[in-house]
Amino acid sequence: MSAAADSPGRGRYIGHPLPRPGARRLLAGRGRYTDDVLLPRTLHAAFLRSPYAHARLGAADVSEAAAMPGVHRVLTGRDFVPICTPWVGTLSHFKGMRSAPQMPLPTEKVVWAGQPVVMVIAETRAEAEDALEAIGIEFEELEPVVDLDAARAPGAPRIDADAPDNVLFRTRIESGSTADAFAGAESVAVDLRFGRHTAVTMEPRAVLADFDPGEGRLTVYQSTQTPYQFQDLYARHFGLPEARVRVIAPDVGGSFGMKLHLYHEDMAVVGASLLLKRPVKFTADRLEAFASDIHARDHRVRARLALAPDGGLRAIEVDDVTGVGPFSAYPRTSAVEGNQVVRLIGAPYRLTDYRADLTVVAQNKVQMSQYRAVGHPIACAVTERLVDLAAQRLGLDPFEIRRRNYVTDAMYPHTTPSGYRFEKLSLGTCLSKLHDLMDYPALRAEQAALRGRGIHRGIGIATYVEITNPTPAFYGVGGAHISAQDGCVLKLTPAGEVQCAISVTEQGQGTEAIVGQIVAEGLGVDRDCVRVHTGDTETTPSGGATWACRGAGIGGETALQASRKLRTRILEIAAAILQAEAKSLDIRDGAVTDPDGTPRMTLRDVANLAYYRSDLLPPDVSPALTVAHHFAPRGYPFAFTNGIHGSLVEVDVETGLVTILRHWVVEDCGRIINPLLVDEQIRGGVVQGLGAAFFEECRYGETGQLLNGSMADYLVPMACEMPDIVIAHVETPTGDTELGAKGCGEAGTAAASGAALNAVNDALHPLGASLSQLPMTPERVLRALNVI
Amino acid sequence: MIEPRPIAVTVNGATVRRFVEPRVSLADFLRGDLGLTGTHLGCEVGVCGACIVNLDDRPVHACLMLAVQVDGMRVDTVEGLSDSGALAELQAAFHARNALQCGFCTPGILVVAQDFLEACRAAGRVPSREAIRDALSGNYCRCTGYEAIVDAIEGVARTRHGRDRREDAA
Amino acid sequence: MKARAFDYRSVASVPEALAAHAGCAGEARYLAGGQSLLPALNLRLDAPDLLIDIGRIEALRGIAREGRTLRIGALTRHAETLRSALVAEHAPMLTQAAAFMAHPAIRNLGTMGGSLSLSDPAAELPACMRALGAAFEITGHGGTRIVAADDFFLDLFENAIAPGELLCAIRVPLPEPGTRMRFEEIARRRGDYALVGLGAKLVLAGGTIVSARLGFCSVGPTPMRAPAAEAALTGRPLDAQAIAAARAALGDDLFPDEDDSLSAAARMHLARVLLGRVLAALSDAGAPAAIEGAAA
Prior knowledge:
The complex is a heterotrimer.
Chain A: H1 23-27, E1 43-49, E2 55-61, H2 63-66, E3 71-75, H3 77-80, E4 109-110, E5 116-122, H4 125-132, E6 136-141, H5 148-152, E7 167-175, H6 178-182, E8 187-198, E9 206-212, E10 217-222, H7 227-238, E11 245-248, H8 264-276, E12 280-283, H9 286-292, E13 295-307, E14 313-323, H10 336-344, E15 353-361, H11 376-394, H12 398-405, E16 414-415, E17 421-422, H13 427-438, H14 440-451, E18 456-468, E19 486-492, E20 498-502, H15 511-523, E21 530-533, H16 551-578, E22 586-588, E23 591-593, E24 599-602, H17 603-612, E25 626-631, E26 639-651, E27 658-668, H18 675-694, E28 725-729, H19 747-764, E29 773-774, H20 778-784
Parallel strand pairs in A: 1-12, 8-29, 10-11, 14-15, 20-21, 27-28
Antiparallel strand pairs in A: 1-5, 2-4, 2-6, 3-5, 7-15, 8-13, 9-10, 9-12, 13-14, 16-17, 18-26, 19-20, 19-25, 22-23, 23-24, 26-27
Chain B: E1 5-11, E2 14-20, H1 26-33, E3 52-55, E4 58-61, E5 74-76, H2 78-83, H3 88-97, H4 106-122, H5 129-135, H6 147-169
Parallel strand pairs in B: 1-5
Antiparallel strand pairs in B: 1-2, 3-4, 3-5
Helix pairs in contact in B: 3-6, 4-6
Chain C: E1 7-10, H1 14-22, E2 28-31, H2 37-42, E3 50-53, E4 63-66, E5 69-73, H3 78-83, H4 85-90, H5 92-100, H6 104-107, H7 112-118, H8 124-132, E6 135-140, E7 143-148, H9 149-152, E8 153-155, E9 158-159, E10 166-173, E11 179-186, E12 196-205, E13 208-217, E14 224-225, H10 227-233, H11 240-249, H12 264-282, E15 291-292
């Protein structure tokens, strides 16, 4: 189906699979990532990191290190106390949440293995690392808190001595009466564990801070999704005027949520530049990335589902315990993932009763926070495993039980028991489409035939709903300086071309490409004459940037409305020159035309006049050809997307290895701006979800040491192990915007692991085995099969 | 103090002479001394594949070579292979298929793919998707999920094979 | 992640290499392909004072048949092993193993001598060398000595090379008539270190196994032979009973350690599964996958 059919404008660009203009530069090796940025007099930072998960800091002897070749300065926690204020990772709408204040480097205690403790600043990174080896520091080991359950046990050692226990946040959601629903009802239950995993962006975190004392001006090049957020943080915590803090996000080599949190090293690098009055650069190496990038997931979810007497799904009870590291991340907290887990469970289904408990627990591991599809994969896997178990209990096919129990088309707008409001979803349509796309009956027949030959295939499906286009309900209401609106400045240049500066950012997903398409469409100009610029707080308007699947939906709408505004200006000027009514003119193919399309004057002519011959304009007509526009979503708190995944796997019951044969996705992200890019967002997301399902897990030892913190030991999905992924679309545009777009960046990750879990369990079911832990490693499969 | 050593390396067709410390990797030399920042560092232990360059026409990890080791040898980076047009077909196919997102892994993948396709061409065969995936087994990509990359390489392989057959027939 | 400072010397001959090593007051390392050494240097897990680059010594190159032996120069790259017609003809197990070794770009630099000198028990080549009954030419100031693969691997990353000595060539005996050989491994992902790997070389005469050599990787501190399983095979036809007996006997041969990624029980189980699969592939029933060693 064509997304262009009823698009705004003429559908010349919106809805078309256009390649990204910016990709050519990356293909030629001309990308400019933060570590590639070269400033005169740059110094390089390296950090001594704690070998212990929990220890009191003793004296540090840095004199030898400070005297080593190339070393300019050795900084410890105390050096930052006079210049930086502490930060606390809580939000006021998470009632009762607490977290220990953080500073760039610790002064008393270390709370995870890998925490930066001492910073060396030298001429080269190698010299800085040489000096690290000359630092003597004493640690007095404390008992580490590692395991989720041990962290909550009475008498457990406390990570934050000022707190009564290790619980950072607790909440309960209750709707209806689950007690009544479960009384005497048939029910199914799960106890699912989700391993910690991490983003493993190809480009590690990098930051280059350059403080110019002459102007009191700080410029920070940073590999991040959210330059405006960091501008605010650096200004506030270092007491600098915000207008003199500039944050530039050059090309970003992957982020997936990982690069929008504040890291201790970021603050130390900025602080060091302030202290040394020189550019200071830090690029995390891969070991540092594993030891200090945020991790995600780490949940144990116990849940049960009650069936109504008629066999319908009626109620769910959930207990989610999540371990988030020693403190809550800043400024978005470490409670959002758990909060989304307990609100998303059961969301696609007609439930009458719901109760969920969330406990967010501190541990001596690296901080946990938002990573692609925050909470969604967990909520999806829990829900969809419960639904599959209910199907087994009722003797229903997995497609049939979903068909019978989804929220139906007649129910919108619909409010879930956990309080989410759905404008309109397409659950049933997607389900039917997946059934056809997979050729489900043929797959089942093939499965049965192969089973007779000892080949164990499994088919699994998993429905998701995804939170996109968030309003300030997400962060702003909690007091975070994180914007939910976006801004766009559009300029018609004197030559009649278009420059667009917008606050949504680019990490390779194609933000700049779709904004260019939208602007070209909205203005009526050729795509090639629109140049989109992002990622610089000084040259783009302030806004939310890119996270939570908001780039297309909110940023795109901002661009569309801005282009309408510029169009109005152009026509106003043209009308004055042509002595016509502005509303009787149009812009097509870069020219002002009559309603029938007859060209009257080119945009170049209009611009030339406005810029160079403004004397020809009537006095009451402004020559301005630059417009600024901001857009904030004001309708539903979130625009929910939905879709469904199918997974076909083959389990080698002798080795426990699982081959992923095929994966299907039917998704509905509303208006599709560029199907080529949407498909690639889905595919990339699916593969990260399959990573979680089969490979990715941060394994910790009893003392809180990360055991597999290297690329050779932490397994991410590779080309040989990943399947081809078949994608189909349903389009249910949101009515909250003219564009109608919702997000798609997390939909692949949201349900891939749930579908795979159901597929593997489908394969194992005839053997009397089942799995309830991700990732599904050979060891776990063999144990489930009782082979070992 | 260990003295820097003089080296002469042919980089992207031009001979460069520098003094380098023995401990400096080829990757750091290319990036730091020569400004060839298209060679990316993703792991520095030869796992991720982002730093792969051609050394005497064979793909190697620039993080697992010392600059002093390549004295007298020929190194071609993504910049040189791009400027010479050697990668043009692959680049066009990657662009059309959107076989990259953040682009960090892309230079290494292009170098590996080009070498792989040359070997396939020499053998007169169009590689299977499995063979393409195998050739990429040492290249991490965290954005695409690999399928588009496989598609792009497969497309170039078919185009080249078809052209070769037509030329053979002519 | 930058290496500590070290000195560097490129040498053109084996005597020059030995002299450079002897002349180094501190720790010296030979640098061949560097595909294991450089990661260790970058991670600062190793910090020699001097690297002696032997990569340009022509005498360490080349693959040649010498009488009943295939002689492989220590500097033979894995990619060369993979492509060598001589290796494919006389030691196809190595051709098969090379395809499992890391990834293409690593294979372009990594060398056979380097891999064996490192003696990583998880690597493919050491296990193959034991299965093939290979021997190594090791040169030091006292001259060259020949050490059998079975006597070479002493412990985790420890072998019979004395400080300053250089592994110069690998001698693989040509297969006698009736030889079948195969290498396979089980890994999580393509090119990863094997959860378990196995090189097997059987000699059959008149339908009976007259000799069996099994070399496992990733199941102990060194590449492991499996004498009990080998004994269980010898003197029997290669059939389901023999395979079952060998699988059962393996419990007396291997005692894998527990590690955080795989339990000892799982690894032992996988070793048995792999043994069964490799033997089945070598048996007549599994003949399509079996490779008959060429008669001399």
